[in-house]
Design a protein that fits this description.
- This protein is an alpha/beta fold.
- The chain has helices spanning 15-22, 35-47, 59-70, 84-87, 92-97, 113-119, 149-161, 173-180, 184-188, 214-226, 235-247, 252-267, 293-302, 325-337, and strands spanning 3-4, 52-56, 75-80, 100-104, 129-136, 165-170, 193-197, 208-212, 272-275, 282-287, 305-306, 308-311, 314-318.
- Strands 2-8-7-6-5-3-4 form a seven-stranded mixed sheet, sandwiched between helices. A four-stranded antiparallel sheet has the order 9-10-13-12, with helices on one face. Strands 1-11 form a two-stranded parallel sheet.
Protein backbone atom coordinates (compact mmCIF):
# COMPACT_ATOMS: atom_id res chain seq x y z
CA UNK A 1 0.00 0.00 0.00
CA UNK A 2 1.48 3.33 -1.13
CA UNK A 3 0.27 6.39 0.76
CA UNK A 4 0.85 9.33 -1.56
CA UNK A 5 0.86 12.59 0.38
CA UNK A 6 2.94 14.55 -2.13
CA UNK A 7 -0.03 16.51 -3.49
CA UNK A 8 -3.78 16.42 -4.01
CA UNK A 9 -3.01 16.37 -7.75
CA UNK A 10 -2.35 12.61 -7.57
CA UNK A 11 -6.01 11.66 -7.10
CA UNK A 12 -7.76 9.25 -9.44
CA UNK A 13 -11.36 9.56 -10.66
CA UNK A 14 -13.94 7.81 -8.51
CA UNK A 15 -16.25 5.19 -10.01
CA UNK A 16 -19.09 7.71 -10.22
CA UNK A 17 -16.87 10.24 -11.95
CA UNK A 18 -15.62 7.68 -14.47
CA UNK A 19 -19.20 6.69 -15.25
CA UNK A 20 -20.14 10.34 -15.84
CA UNK A 21 -17.14 10.79 -18.13
CA UNK A 22 -17.99 7.74 -20.21
CA UNK A 23 -21.59 8.86 -20.71
CA UNK A 24 -20.86 12.52 -21.47
CA UNK A 25 -22.37 14.03 -24.63
CA UNK A 26 -19.62 15.86 -26.52
CA UNK A 27 -19.00 18.20 -29.44
CA UNK A 28 -16.29 20.55 -30.69
CA UNK A 29 -15.61 23.02 -27.92
CA UNK A 30 -13.60 25.40 -30.13
CA UNK A 31 -16.87 25.87 -32.05
CA UNK A 32 -18.65 26.22 -28.69
CA UNK A 33 -20.57 23.02 -29.44
CA UNK A 34 -19.57 20.71 -26.59
CA UNK A 35 -22.69 20.50 -24.40
CA UNK A 36 -20.84 19.11 -21.39
CA UNK A 37 -18.19 21.84 -21.45
CA UNK A 38 -20.97 24.41 -21.78
CA UNK A 39 -22.77 22.83 -18.82
CA UNK A 40 -19.61 22.94 -16.68
CA UNK A 41 -18.92 26.58 -17.55
CA UNK A 42 -22.51 27.61 -16.80
CA UNK A 43 -22.49 25.65 -13.53
CA UNK A 44 -19.25 27.23 -12.33
CA UNK A 45 -20.31 30.74 -13.29
CA UNK A 46 -23.66 30.27 -11.56
CA UNK A 47 -22.06 28.99 -8.36
CA UNK A 48 -20.05 32.21 -8.03
CA UNK A 49 -22.77 34.52 -9.31
CA UNK A 50 -20.58 35.60 -12.23
CA UNK A 51 -21.50 35.96 -15.87
CA UNK A 52 -19.34 33.40 -17.62
CA UNK A 53 -16.58 30.81 -17.30
CA UNK A 54 -13.90 29.17 -19.42
CA UNK A 55 -12.72 25.56 -19.15
CA UNK A 56 -8.91 25.33 -19.31
CA UNK A 57 -6.51 22.36 -19.28
CA UNK A 58 -4.58 23.56 -16.19
CA UNK A 59 -4.67 26.01 -13.32
CA UNK A 60 -1.43 27.56 -14.51
CA UNK A 61 -3.07 28.31 -17.86
CA UNK A 62 -6.20 29.79 -16.27
CA UNK A 63 -4.08 32.04 -14.03
CA UNK A 64 -1.82 33.10 -16.88
CA UNK A 65 -4.78 33.86 -19.14
CA UNK A 66 -6.30 36.05 -16.43
CA UNK A 67 -3.05 37.94 -15.88
CA UNK A 68 -2.64 38.44 -19.62
CA UNK A 69 -6.17 39.82 -19.98
CA UNK A 70 -5.88 42.12 -16.95
CA UNK A 71 -2.49 43.67 -17.82
CA UNK A 72 -0.48 45.36 -20.55
CA UNK A 73 3.23 44.73 -21.22
CA UNK A 74 5.29 46.76 -18.76
CA UNK A 75 2.64 46.65 -16.02
CA UNK A 76 3.29 45.42 -12.49
CA UNK A 77 1.39 42.68 -10.65
CA UNK A 78 1.20 42.64 -6.85
CA UNK A 79 1.31 39.24 -5.12
CA UNK A 80 2.76 37.50 -2.08
CA UNK A 81 6.35 36.27 -2.41
CA UNK A 82 5.15 32.65 -2.01
CA UNK A 83 2.33 32.96 -4.55
CA UNK A 84 1.89 30.14 -7.05
CA UNK A 85 1.63 32.63 -9.93
CA UNK A 86 5.17 33.76 -9.07
CA UNK A 87 6.84 30.64 -7.69
CA UNK A 88 5.44 27.80 -9.79
CA UNK A 89 4.28 29.05 -13.16
CA UNK A 90 7.60 29.12 -15.02
CA UNK A 91 8.05 32.88 -15.10
CA UNK A 92 4.78 33.10 -17.02
CA UNK A 93 3.92 36.61 -15.84
CA UNK A 94 7.01 37.91 -17.63
CA UNK A 95 6.91 35.46 -20.55
CA UNK A 96 3.21 35.58 -21.36
CA UNK A 97 2.07 39.01 -20.20
CA UNK A 98 5.31 41.01 -20.36
CA UNK A 99 4.61 42.24 -16.84
CA UNK A 100 6.78 42.39 -13.74
CA UNK A 101 5.98 41.50 -10.15
CA UNK A 102 5.90 43.39 -6.85
CA UNK A 103 6.39 40.80 -4.10
CA UNK A 104 4.94 41.37 -0.64
CA UNK A 105 5.76 39.57 2.60
CA UNK A 106 2.37 38.33 3.75
CA UNK A 107 1.29 36.24 6.72
CA UNK A 108 1.65 32.63 5.55
CA UNK A 109 0.89 33.74 2.00
CA UNK A 110 -1.90 36.17 2.86
CA UNK A 111 -1.52 39.89 2.21
CA UNK A 112 -3.33 42.76 3.91
CA UNK A 113 -5.02 45.78 2.39
CA UNK A 114 -2.39 48.01 4.00
CA UNK A 115 0.40 46.03 2.33
CA UNK A 116 -1.33 46.18 -1.05
CA UNK A 117 -1.81 49.93 -0.69
CA UNK A 118 1.86 50.41 0.11
CA UNK A 119 2.83 48.25 -2.87
CA UNK A 120 1.02 50.38 -5.46
CA UNK A 121 3.41 52.44 -7.57
CA UNK A 122 2.83 56.20 -7.91
CA UNK A 123 1.67 57.66 -11.22
CA UNK A 124 5.25 58.26 -12.38
CA UNK A 125 6.72 57.56 -15.82
CA UNK A 126 9.78 56.05 -14.09
CA UNK A 127 7.63 53.36 -12.45
CA UNK A 128 5.79 50.35 -13.83
CA UNK A 129 2.02 50.84 -13.88
CA UNK A 130 0.43 48.79 -11.10
CA UNK A 131 -2.64 47.20 -12.66
CA UNK A 132 -3.39 43.89 -10.94
CA UNK A 133 -3.44 42.25 -7.51
CA UNK A 134 -3.36 38.45 -7.27
CA UNK A 135 -4.46 36.63 -4.12
CA UNK A 136 -4.15 32.89 -3.45
CA UNK A 137 -6.80 31.10 -1.38
CA UNK A 138 -5.92 28.71 0.10
CA UNK A 139 -2.24 29.65 0.31
CA UNK A 140 -0.21 26.60 -0.73
CA UNK A 141 3.17 27.62 0.72
CA UNK A 142 1.34 29.12 3.68
CA UNK A 143 0.18 25.67 4.77
CA UNK A 144 -3.29 25.83 3.28
CA UNK A 145 -4.35 28.87 5.29
CA UNK A 146 -7.49 30.78 4.29
CA UNK A 147 -8.16 34.47 3.84
CA UNK A 148 -10.74 36.13 6.06
CA UNK A 149 -13.58 37.42 3.90
CA UNK A 150 -13.32 40.81 5.56
CA UNK A 151 -9.62 41.02 4.63
CA UNK A 152 -10.51 40.37 0.99
CA UNK A 153 -13.22 43.03 1.14
CA UNK A 154 -10.67 45.56 2.38
CA UNK A 155 -8.23 44.62 -0.40
CA UNK A 156 -11.01 44.99 -2.99
CA UNK A 157 -11.74 48.47 -1.63
CA UNK A 158 -8.10 49.44 -2.15
CA UNK A 159 -8.22 48.04 -5.67
CA UNK A 160 -11.37 49.99 -6.49
CA UNK A 161 -9.90 53.22 -5.14
CA UNK A 162 -6.81 52.81 -7.35
CA UNK A 163 -8.43 51.29 -10.46
CA UNK A 164 -6.73 47.91 -10.00
CA UNK A 165 -8.08 44.52 -11.04
CA UNK A 166 -8.27 41.74 -8.43
CA UNK A 167 -7.68 38.12 -9.47
CA UNK A 168 -8.00 35.06 -7.24
CA UNK A 169 -5.83 32.02 -7.74
CA UNK A 170 -8.42 29.76 -6.14
CA UNK A 171 -6.69 26.48 -6.92
CA UNK A 172 -7.98 25.12 -3.61
CA UNK A 173 -10.76 27.67 -3.11
CA UNK A 174 -13.37 25.04 -2.30
CA UNK A 175 -11.18 23.86 0.59
CA UNK A 176 -11.38 27.39 1.96
CA UNK A 177 -15.13 27.62 1.37
CA UNK A 178 -15.75 24.35 3.19
CA UNK A 179 -13.39 25.18 6.07
CA UNK A 180 -14.84 28.66 6.58
CA UNK A 181 -18.43 27.69 5.71
CA UNK A 182 -18.57 30.49 3.16
CA UNK A 183 -20.46 30.71 -0.12
CA UNK A 184 -18.98 30.90 -3.61
CA UNK A 185 -21.25 33.89 -4.27
CA UNK A 186 -19.51 35.92 -1.56
CA UNK A 187 -16.17 35.45 -3.31
CA UNK A 188 -17.62 36.01 -6.76
CA UNK A 189 -18.77 39.45 -5.64
CA UNK A 190 -15.25 40.46 -4.58
CA UNK A 191 -13.03 39.44 -7.50
CA UNK A 192 -12.79 40.53 -11.11
CA UNK A 193 -11.76 36.97 -12.00
CA UNK A 194 -11.38 33.63 -10.23
CA UNK A 195 -9.45 30.51 -11.21
CA UNK A 196 -10.51 27.22 -9.61
CA UNK A 197 -8.65 23.93 -10.08
CA UNK A 198 -10.76 20.83 -10.56
CA UNK A 199 -7.75 18.50 -10.50
CA UNK A 200 -6.75 18.93 -6.87
CA UNK A 201 -9.05 18.28 -3.93
CA UNK A 202 -12.09 17.95 -6.17
CA UNK A 203 -10.49 14.86 -7.69
CA UNK A 204 -10.71 15.43 -11.46
CA UNK A 205 -7.98 14.01 -13.70
CA UNK A 206 -7.42 17.36 -15.43
CA UNK A 207 -8.86 20.84 -15.78
CA UNK A 208 -9.42 24.26 -14.28
CA UNK A 209 -12.15 26.86 -14.58
CA UNK A 210 -11.63 30.60 -15.09
CA UNK A 211 -14.67 32.65 -14.04
CA UNK A 212 -15.50 36.30 -14.59
CA UNK A 213 -17.60 38.87 -16.46
CA UNK A 214 -18.75 38.04 -19.98
CA UNK A 215 -16.44 40.55 -21.69
CA UNK A 216 -13.47 39.28 -19.69
CA UNK A 217 -14.18 35.64 -20.60
CA UNK A 218 -14.57 36.58 -24.29
CA UNK A 219 -11.03 37.99 -24.22
CA UNK A 220 -9.84 35.03 -22.16
CA UNK A 221 -11.18 32.60 -24.76
CA UNK A 222 -9.03 34.28 -27.41
CA UNK A 223 -5.95 34.11 -25.17
CA UNK A 224 -6.64 30.44 -24.42
CA UNK A 225 -6.54 29.78 -28.16
CA UNK A 226 -3.24 31.66 -28.50
CA UNK A 227 -1.81 29.64 -25.59
CA UNK A 228 -2.79 26.41 -27.35
CA UNK A 229 -5.57 25.62 -24.91
CA UNK A 230 -8.43 25.24 -27.37
CA UNK A 231 -9.78 21.70 -27.00
CA UNK A 232 -12.17 19.72 -29.17
CA UNK A 233 -14.30 16.94 -27.58
CA UNK A 234 -13.33 18.10 -24.11
CA UNK A 235 -16.67 17.11 -22.63
CA UNK A 236 -15.32 13.76 -21.49
CA UNK A 237 -13.03 15.67 -19.12
CA UNK A 238 -15.52 18.44 -18.37
CA UNK A 239 -17.97 15.78 -17.18
CA UNK A 240 -15.54 15.03 -14.38
CA UNK A 241 -15.73 18.68 -13.35
CA UNK A 242 -19.52 18.68 -13.35
CA UNK A 243 -19.54 15.52 -11.24
CA UNK A 244 -17.00 16.96 -8.81
CA UNK A 245 -18.88 20.22 -8.29
CA UNK A 246 -22.13 18.34 -7.73
CA UNK A 247 -20.81 15.48 -5.57
CA UNK A 248 -17.31 16.01 -4.14
CA UNK A 249 -17.21 19.43 -2.52
CA UNK A 250 -18.51 18.75 0.99
CA UNK A 251 -16.27 15.68 1.40
CA UNK A 252 -13.26 18.04 1.48
CA UNK A 253 -14.00 18.35 5.21
CA UNK A 254 -12.73 14.77 5.60
CA UNK A 255 -9.35 15.79 4.19
CA UNK A 256 -9.21 18.69 6.64
CA UNK A 257 -9.96 16.32 9.52
CA UNK A 258 -7.21 13.96 8.36
CA UNK A 259 -4.74 16.85 8.14
CA UNK A 260 -5.43 17.78 11.77
CA UNK A 261 -4.78 14.16 12.84
CA UNK A 262 -1.39 14.18 11.13
CA UNK A 263 -0.59 17.60 12.54
CA UNK A 264 -1.29 16.33 16.05
CA UNK A 265 1.07 13.39 15.53
CA UNK A 266 3.77 15.63 14.08
CA UNK A 267 3.50 18.08 16.98
CA UNK A 268 4.66 15.28 19.26
CA UNK A 269 7.42 13.96 16.99
CA UNK A 270 11.01 14.64 18.12
CA UNK A 271 12.06 15.62 14.59
CA UNK A 272 9.45 18.39 14.27
CA UNK A 273 10.66 21.90 14.95
CA UNK A 274 7.45 23.76 14.24
CA UNK A 275 4.19 23.40 12.35
CA UNK A 276 2.45 25.95 10.20
CA UNK A 277 -1.17 26.44 11.33
CA UNK A 278 -3.33 23.70 9.80
CA UNK A 279 -6.74 24.83 8.53
CA UNK A 280 -7.42 22.77 5.42
CA UNK A 281 -5.72 19.80 3.74
CA UNK A 282 -2.05 20.87 3.78
CA UNK A 283 0.44 20.15 6.57
CA UNK A 284 3.84 21.87 6.45
CA UNK A 285 6.38 21.33 9.21
CA UNK A 286 9.92 22.39 9.97
CA UNK A 287 12.50 19.70 10.72
CA UNK A 288 14.67 20.45 13.74
CA UNK A 289 18.12 19.51 15.01
CA UNK A 290 20.49 17.72 12.68
CA UNK A 291 17.66 16.29 10.60
CA UNK A 292 17.01 17.36 7.02
CA UNK A 293 13.74 17.53 5.14
CA UNK A 294 15.04 15.11 2.50
CA UNK A 295 16.12 12.71 5.24
CA UNK A 296 12.66 12.65 6.81
CA UNK A 297 11.07 12.23 3.38
CA UNK A 298 13.39 9.26 2.74
CA UNK A 299 12.40 7.64 6.04
CA UNK A 300 8.73 8.09 5.24
CA UNK A 301 9.29 6.54 1.82
CA UNK A 302 10.86 3.47 3.45
CA UNK A 303 7.44 2.98 5.02
CA UNK A 304 5.57 3.48 1.71
CA UNK A 305 4.61 7.07 2.52
CA UNK A 306 5.41 9.68 -0.14
CA UNK A 307 5.96 13.31 0.83
CA UNK A 308 7.80 16.33 -0.57
CA UNK A 309 10.65 18.39 0.85
CA UNK A 310 9.68 21.92 -0.20
CA UNK A 311 12.76 23.50 1.42
CA UNK A 312 15.95 22.21 3.11
CA UNK A 313 14.12 22.12 6.46
CA UNK A 314 10.44 21.94 5.40
CA UNK A 315 8.27 18.95 4.54
CA UNK A 316 4.76 19.15 3.05
CA UNK A 317 1.99 16.56 3.38
CA UNK A 318 -1.26 16.97 1.44
CA UNK A 319 -4.47 15.07 2.19
CA UNK A 320 -6.96 14.14 -0.51
CA UNK A 321 -9.81 11.81 -1.43
CA UNK A 322 -7.52 8.82 -2.10
CA UNK A 323 -6.24 8.89 1.50
CA UNK A 324 -8.38 6.78 3.81
CA UNK A 325 -8.57 6.89 7.61
CA UNK A 326 -6.63 3.61 7.66
CA UNK A 327 -3.82 5.28 5.70
CA UNK A 328 -3.83 8.24 8.07
CA UNK A 329 -3.59 5.96 11.10
CA UNK A 330 -0.70 4.05 9.50
CA UNK A 331 1.09 7.36 8.84
CA UNK A 332 0.60 8.38 12.45
CA UNK A 333 2.24 5.14 13.59
CA UNK A 334 5.16 5.66 11.24
CA UNK A 335 5.64 9.24 12.42
CA UNK A 336 5.71 7.98 15.99
CA UNK A 337 8.46 5.52 15.10
CA UNK A 338 10.85 7.91 13.39
Amino acid sequence: MIIDLRSDTVTRPTAGMLDAMMKAPVGDDVFGEDPTVNKLEALAAGLFGMEAALYCPTGTMSNQIAIKVHTQPGDEVICDRTAHVYQYEGGGIAFNAGAQVKLLEGDHGRMTAAQVLQGINPDDVHKARTSLVCLENTANRGGGGCYDLQAIQMIRQVCDEHQLQLHLDGARLFNALVARKESPHAHGALFHSISVCLNKGLGCPVGSILIGPGAFIKKARRIRKVFGGGMRQAGYMAAAGVYALENQVERLAVDHEHALILAEALSKAPFTGSLLPVETNIVIFEVNGNRSATGIVAQLKENNILAIAIAPTQVRLVLHLDISREMVEHTVRVIGGI
